[in-house]
């Protein structure tokens, strides 16, 4: 029997111990989850991903064009308020010849099918990211910056991407110096799709598709939250639905022909109101096909689909393209049921509104999940809190029409012609703010107007703008007034 020398035995024992240690570590050590590794560590630059995506999507869009005449208008749908108990029939005011209708149906189906099957149509977003997307440019830039500052004063840290149509709207000083300090960056759509390829209402869907975020909160430049919006991405209904939309005042007036083209059952007019697309939430991980179809509706919107989806109703444009795209491809969504509310001044028979107020979707979802539909009967529960304000009529740009008699709703004037608050009625809606939102908004407008480091191209006489805003602030907000609205979290 061979005898091991002490030195050799020691070596064998050490090697065996090392092997056991390695095996133990291998068995019991778990690697960190993928989310711990920076998702951008080996990522293709955003611009390259955007260009590659458009290089694939554009031919698909072109290859399934309607190739039919623009639908004929018999008349336009009037401003009919949504009624959740109506039995009225759907407006039918659009004409398409039978052959053209079949061609549009086949093009629609072909587009969806090619988008489903295309392996080269890879999403642009970085997995696991979330942020806010908007568009701005020219006179919308001051409005956007006010909204952005309202977001940051809430403590929100969500990154923001703001898209502009082309380089003519890119303001270097704002984009390179001001916005980065506020966690925002500018991107130019024409760098991706070419100049003039998309315009106006079409910008929204392409900004969302080209954004780097997987989970997107879309907010128009003149829309801002009253609370940190990231909480909406972490709760129902978004966590299970992946798409959340808010209502407009009006009926959903899509043409019966649209439902034939998209091969859907036609819903009753009472099912839901039309959409107000100043704000929505969407997951590109779960709703990429919805967004691709919305892109189709917008790309061929001016010629075909804007008419089919609204029939000339108020706000015709991109507003109906998102939710209808989801229903067409069978992806889930949640349409907030609580009615949108106008805030402004009282007038005979109603309100001269200068902003729209949208509800907390989590509170609305809790009510509808319990089969409590305030849209049918307001007595079933108290109103949910307000969550977003869309200050759209007029845009609150102090360099334009917000002061004096320049706008029909004269939001900044009292009945006697002196400076006054814009948002006084309806009192019950204003109370749902929970705090003095209007004062906070004007504080940000004042800070922007009088900050010498901020200069917008559209503000030729910034010194005069600053003086006017400071005067308005002194008259309206610097000290309390007897008619100031009351705010409470108990409403």
Automatic annotation (TrEMBL):
Sequence intervals crossing the membrane: 12-29
Gene Ontology cellular component annotations, sorted alphabetically: Golgi membrane
Record GO biological process: mannan biosynthetic process
Pathway entry: Protein modification; protein glycosylation
Top-level taxon of the source organism: Eukaryota
Cited InterPro entries: Alpha_mannosyltransferase (IPR022751), Nucleotide-diphossugar_trans (IPR029044)
Family: Belongs to the MNN1/MNT family.
The name this protein goes by in its record: Glycosyltransferase family 71 protein
Species per Swiss-Prot/TrEMBL record: Aspergillus luchuensis (strain CBS 106.47)
Lineage: Eukaryota, Fungi, Dikarya, Ascomycota, Pezizomycotina
């Amino acid at each position: 029997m061979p005898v091991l020398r002490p030195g050799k035995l020691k070596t064998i024992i050490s090697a065996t111990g090392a092997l056991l240690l390695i095996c133990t570590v291998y068995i019991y050590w778990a690697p960190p989850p993928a989310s711990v590794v920076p998702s951008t560590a080996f990522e293709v630059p955003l611009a390259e991903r955007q260009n590659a995506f458009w290089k694939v999507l554009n031919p698909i869009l072109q290859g399934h064009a309607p190739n039919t005449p623009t639908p004929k208008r018999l008349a336009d749908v009037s401003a009919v308020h949504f009624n959740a108990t109506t039995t009225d029939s759907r407006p039918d005011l659009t004409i398409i010849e039978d052959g053209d209708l079949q061609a549009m149906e086949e093009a629609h189906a072909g587009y969806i099918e090619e988008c489903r099957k295309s392996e080269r149509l890879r999403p642009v977003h970085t997995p696991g990211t979330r942020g806010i997307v908007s568009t701005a440019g020219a006179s919308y830039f001051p409005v956007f910056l006010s909204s952005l500052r309202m977001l940051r004063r809430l403590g929100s840290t969500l990154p923001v991407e703001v898209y502009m149509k082309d380089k003519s709207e890119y303001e270097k000083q704002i984009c390179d110096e001001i916005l980065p300090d506020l966690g925002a960056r500018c991107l130019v759509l024409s760098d991706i799709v070419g100049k003039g390829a998309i315009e106006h209402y079409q910008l929204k869907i392409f900004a969302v598709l080209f954004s780097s975020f997987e989970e997107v909160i879309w907010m128009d430049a003149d829309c801002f939250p009253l609370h940190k919006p990231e909480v909406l991405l972490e709760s129902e209904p978004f966590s299970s639905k992946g798409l959340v939309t808010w209502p407009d005042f009006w009926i959903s007036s899509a043409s019966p022909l649209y439902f034939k083209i998209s091969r859907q059952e036609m819903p009753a007019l009472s099912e839901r109101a039309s959409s107000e697309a100043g704000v929505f939430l969407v997951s590109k991980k779960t709703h990429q096909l919805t967004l691709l179809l919305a892109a189709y509706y917008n790309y061929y919107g001016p010629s075909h689909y804007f008419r089919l989806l609204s029939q000339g109703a108020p706000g015709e444009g991109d507003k109906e393209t998102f939710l209808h795209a989801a229903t067409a491809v069978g992806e889930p969504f949640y349409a907030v049921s609580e009615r949108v509310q106008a805030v402004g001044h009282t007038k005979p028979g109603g309100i001269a509104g200068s902003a729209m107020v949208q509800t907390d979707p989590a509170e609305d979802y809790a009510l509808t999940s319990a089969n409590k539909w305030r849209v049918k009967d307001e007595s079933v529960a108290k109103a949910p809190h307000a969550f977003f304000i869309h200050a759209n009529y007029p845009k609150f740009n102090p360099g334009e029409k917000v002061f004096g008699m320049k706008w029909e709703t004269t939001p900044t004037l009292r009945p006697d012609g002196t400076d006054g608050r814009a948002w006084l009625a309806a009192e019950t809606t204003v109370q749902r703010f929970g705090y003095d939102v209007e004062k906070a908004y004007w504080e940000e407008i004042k800070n922007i107007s009088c900050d010498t480091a901020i200069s917008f191209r559209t503000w030729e006489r910034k010194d005069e703008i600053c003086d006017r805003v400071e005067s308005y602030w002194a008259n309206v907000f610097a000290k309390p007034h007897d008619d100031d609205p009351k705010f409470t979290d108990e409403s």
